[in-house]
Write a structure and sequence with these properties.
385 residues, alpha/beta, Rossmann fold, Dehydroquinate synthase-like, alpha domain, 2 domains, 6-stranded parallel beta sheet, two-stranded antiparallel sheet, 13 helices, 8 strands
């Protein structure tokens, strides 16, 4: 196991009828900005619960955050914060709303020019506004981590940033808020969480037994409960297990002391930025290709995943077990109704070349060995046509 340091300060408030508890977490003197997405919270009762919980507070609203949150939209929220002198933010939505809120919380305090520089070039951020989260879609794990991904529509860039200053102060996880999600979002959420785990798990062994077993338990939970959520979207226990699994998939715990990959995410972000695919759709396309191309270097962990998650044991030779394990991952994504090939989204060779060129132009080297160049990405994506 590699050396590591770990801290996660986020307070989790989990369970039914817990939105009301935010009044215990937000200072009574705060001027609150509620940040949300397309307005579904005003149809499913979540908004009304939030408003009830904020009785006695001064609060304002900012809606319209996109599924892949735009820098341009976030900056409008920053302008509103400065106009109304808000000093506390409340993200009500899924991972995109939470990611946007993280950027907004930083940008509202950034005094060294364009806050996009924090995302694009790693400019140092000094402070951020405090914020809480009411989660309505379990997928990204952003409710319990310090990372975010933001899209700049003007330049078609989708980039990540990370800072301990943007850990949420608290996150409310009420599984009933996910009952009304459409099938597409349920499937996307499960795939997103699954790939988060694999990016931290399917690399090479370093004898981190606790992290491996915990990762496998999250993956198994997603596999067992994922299809149930499609069939019975209002099964509380199923949704509770998925919500908690998605949070633990990316709260920093399972990556302690282990190598991480993240090539799938980096490649997928380009497909979203250039062609507008859902984040999880890009992951479902790319991950099987990464596993296939890197199968010899990832062999031990792929075989281990096949055994511990999908029940693929020593009844086949080594190569057959690797292929069966990769196929099991792809089949699971399809079971979650998330398609796994570029052609499923009417994309072909042009998309492959566009993504490869972008990564070559940036000089990026991805993966746990930092050796996946744009030319290698071309080979990976050609496996997914």
């Amino acid at each position: 196991m590699n050396n590591f340091a770990f801290v996660n300060p986020v307070k989790i408030i989990f369970g039914k009828d817990t939105i009301k508890d935010i009044s215990k977490e937000i200072p009574q003197s705060a001027k609150v900005l509620i940040i949300y997405g397309g307005g579904s919270i005003k149809k499913n009762g979540v908004y009304d619960q939030v408003v009830d919980a904020l009785k006695g507070y001064t609060y304002y609203e900012f809606g319209g955050v996109e599924a892949n949150p735009h820098y341009e939209t976030c900056m409008k929220a920053v302008a509103l914060i400065k106009e109304k002198q808000c000093d506390y933010l409340l993200a009500v939505g899924g991972g995109s709303v939470v990611d946007a809120t993280k950027f907004i919380s930083m940008a509202a305090c950034f005094e060294a020019g364009d806050p996009w520089s924090v995302v694009a070039s790693g400019a140092k951020m000094e402070k951020a506004l405090p914020f809480g989260v009411i989660l309505t879609l379990s997928a990204t794990g952003s409710e319990m981590n310090s990372g975010a991904v933001i899209t700049r529509a003007e330049t078609q860039d989708k980039l990540a940033f990370n800072s301990p200053l943007v850990f949420p102060k608290f996150s409310v996880l009420d599984p009933t808020t996910t009952f009304t999600l459409p099938v597409r979002q349920i499937g996307n959420g499960v795939v997103d969480a699954f790939v988060h785990v694999v990016e931290q798990y399917a690399t090479y062994p370093v004898n981190a037994m606790i992290q491996d077993m915990f990762a496998e338990s999250i993956l198994r939970t997603l596999v067992i409960e994922g299809s149930k959520a499609l069939e019975s979207p209002e099964d509380y226990d199923v949704r509770a297990n998925l919500m908690w699994a998605s949070t633990w998939a990316l709260n920093g715990w399972i990556n302690c002391g282990v190598p991480q990959d993240w090539a799938t995410h980096s490649i997928g972000h380009e497909l979203t930025a250039l062609y507008g695919l859902d984040h999880a759709q890009t992951l479902a396309i790319v991950l099987p290709g990464v596993l296939e191309y890197e199968k010899e270097r990832k062999a031990e962990k792929i075989i281990q995943m096949g055994e511990q998650v999908f029940g693929i044991y020593n009844t086949m030779d080594r190569e057959e077990r690797i292929q069966a394990s990769i196929k099991a991952v792809e089949d699971f994504f399809e079971q979650m109704q998330v398609k796994t090939h570029l052609s499923d989204y009417e994309l072909g060779e042009d998309a492959v070349e566009a993504v490869a060129k972008r990564l070559n132009d940036r000089g990026w080297k991805l993966g746990e060995h930092a050796d996946i160049t744009g030319d290698v990405v071309r080979k990976i994506l050609k496996l997914r046509l």
